[in-house]
Amino acid sequence: MNCSICIMPSLNITLCLVLFFISSTVSADDDYYCPNTTTYNTNTSYHSNLISLLSTLSNASRKYGFYNCSTSNNGNSERIYGLFMCRGDIPSAACQDCASRAARKIIQGCPARKMAVFWSDSCLLRYSNRSIFPKPDYGSIINKPDRPFVLRNVIQISTDEQSRFKQKLGEMMDDVAARAASDRSIGKKFATREDNFSTADTTIYALAQCIPDISSSACLNCLGIVIKVLHKCCDEYKGARVQFPSCFVRQEVYPFYTSNSPALSYIQGHNGVPKQVVLIVCVVAIGFLLLLLSTNKSISSVVFPLLLKKRKNTLEETNDDLNGILTAESLQYDFSTIEAATSCFFAENKIGMGGFGDVYKGELVNEQEIAVKRLSRRSSQGVEEFKNEVVLVAKLQHRNLVRLLGFCLEGEEKILIYEFVPNKSLDYFLFDTKKQATLSWSVRDKIIRGIVRGLVYLHEDSRPRIIHRDLKASNILLDKDMNPKISDFGMARIFGADQTEGSTNIIVGTYGYMSPEYAMHGQFSVKSDVFSFGVLLLEIISGKRNRSFCQEDKFDDLLTHAWKLWKDGKAMKFVDPTLIGDSNSGSEIMRCMHIGLLCVQSDLDGRPTTALIAHILHTESATLPEPNRPASFKDYTSIGKMDQLTSKHIPSSILQESITEVYPR
After folding, report:
1. Bridge partners, residue 81, by sequence
2. CATH of 159-275 among 3.30.430.20, 3.50.50.60, 3.10.20.30, 3.75.10.10
C-alpha cells in the first residue's frame, strides 16, 4: 500500500487528508480517528462502561444495519455513547461480523481514548463521552481537519474524459445525496445509482449514506460537505471513498455494492435492470397470461376462481377482529430500534412503572417521541393479552384514545409503543396537593367531557364494541393542551354486535374502580365501565382517591361519603377546596357530582349509559333522578370466597393496589 499526504483547500480552509492508494481499487483496510482528547485509565468505571457498551454494540440485532446506545454505571459523568452503522447493502450476517470486529479493533486502534471512530468499507463504529446522537458531526470539521477519512484509486480518468466524468459524477452524487436524505429508505438513509459514461461504455457506480438518526436536512448538509471534499481530492480518479462520522460517499467504475439488496430495490432508480425493461417484461407477461386465459376456458375456469378465493380469504382475514397479532404486522418494530430509541432503556428515561412492567420515554430516528411499555418477563399478562391489546388498540382511532404506534415481540420481549403524551396522567395532577391548583374547573370539565367522548366511541361507535374494564385516573393521559386520552387496553374485552354483557372467572382491574357485579360475580358490561367512570368523576370533583379515602371518625369510602353529603344537602363540602372560589361553576360541579352518584349505584340498571351521560352534559334542562346509596368497599369485603382469591375476604393490601399496570406517562 502506498501512502501520501495531500494538502488541498476545502470550504475556504486547508484540509489535511490522508490518502491511501492501491494499484486498482479503493482499499478496504480499517482506519481510525482518535482525537487528541482526554484518556481514561484501565480498571476504572469508564473503562468498564466502555467494555459493556462495545459488547452491546457487537451483539445487537442487525436487521437495519444500525444501532445506537449509551451506558453508565456511575451517573452522567461516566456515560458513554456509541453507535455502529453498516453500509446499506451489507447483509445482516456480514454486518454482525463487521460490528463485532470493529468493537474489538477500536480499542487497539485508539487505546485509552475517551472517543474514537472506526471505519471500514463495510461498517462504521463510534463511541464518545459526549452525546453523538441524534445530531450530526460535520460542523467541527473546519477546526479539526483530520476528521474525514479518504481513500482513492491511483488510476486517473483519461485527460480528455475528465471534464465529462466530473460533470456526470457530480450529477450522480447530487442525486444519491438527495435520495439518501429522504425518509423513504426503509430505516436507512442510503441510496445508490449507476449510469453509463463515455464512448467506451464505462459505467459509474455511486453510493451515499447517512447515520439514520439524523434529520433529512442534516443528512443532506453532511453529504453536501462530503461531496465537496470528494470534488477537491478525487473526482478525476476512477474510485474514491470519503467518510465523516455521520455520512459518507463512494464512487467506482465497477459494481462494488450488492444490487439485489431490499433497500436498493426500493430506492434506486438506475440500479440493475432499467425500469423500461422491467415495465416491458411485465406488460408482455400480463398480456400473454390474459391471452392464454381468454383462449383456454379450462385454465380460466380454474385460475379465476382461485384468484377470487384468495382475494376473499384475504378480505376475511382483514375483517376478522380476533385473528391475532398478524393484523398488526405492519406495526412491528425491531428490538434494536426500541433499544436505540430509549438509550438501552436508560434509567433516566423511565417515566412510569406498574404491575406488568416499566414505561420509558424514547425518540425514534425521525425525531418522534414515543412511550415504550416494556412488559415484565414475570408479568401475568401473557401472549394472548398482549395480542389483545395490540390488535384492539391498533383498530381504535379517536382523539380521546391513546394511539398505538407499534409493538415488538422478539424472544421473551413484549413491548408496546405508543404516542408520547407530555402531561403524564390525570392522577399525577389530581392527587397532588401542590399540582391540584393547576386543574381549574374548566380544565377538569374538559377532561370529563373528553373521557365521556372516548367511552361513547368504545361503547357505541366502535365496531366491535369495547369494554375497557380498567378505567381509572392513572389510565387517563393528558396531552399538551390537557385533553384526555384513555389508555391501557390490556384488559379490554370485545363484544359482538348483539352482545350486551359477559362474564369471567378471572377478575382483573383495580379495586375501588370495579363495579360490584364484576368484583363479586365476574359479570361485566358497558355499565361496568360506567361505574368506573362514576368513581373517576367523583375523584375529579373532590381531588381525593377512592381507594385511600377514610374519615377520621368512621370508615366511609369516597362514594359513600359523597352520597351522605348529597343527601344531607352539604354537597359543596365534597368539592376540592381549590374549586370553591369559582362561583360561576357551582351548578356545573353539582350536576357532575349528581351524574357521578348515578353512575356508582349498586343496581346496574339504575346507571346511565355513556351516551346518556354525554347528552346530560350537553343539555342543562335534563332532569335527573335522585341517586340511591352507592356500592362501597364494605360490599366488596363482605364477599365470600372469590374466584381468584383463596381467603374469605379481600386482603387490605389488595384494596390499595392495582392488579393491572400503570400506563405509559
Report:
1. 70, 128
2. 3.30.430.20
Q: Which residue has the cell 476504572?
A: 44
H or E stretch at 588: helix 586-599
Please tell me the distance from the alpha carbon of residue 178 to that of residue 190, in angstroms, as a whole number: 10
Q: How many helices (H) and strands (E) does the chain have?
A: 18, 23
598: its cell numbers = 348515578
8-state DSSP, 280 = H
Beta bridge pairs of residue 16: 7
pTM above 0.70, yes or no: no
Contacts 24+ apart (CB under 8 A), 158-167: 161/198, 162/236, 164/197, 164/198, 165/197, 165/198, 165/204, 165/235, 165/236, 166/231, 166/235, 166/236
Instruction: Give CA–CA dist 65/57, Å, rounded.
Output: 11
What's the pLDDT tens digit per position in 467-523? Answer: 999 999 999 999 999 999 998 887 888 876 667 788 887 777 788 899 988 888 888
Active centre residues (catalytic): 470
How does 326-363 read in b/e, with b if 16+ C-beta sit within 10 Å? ebbeebebbbbbbbbbbbbbbeebbbbebebbbbbbbb
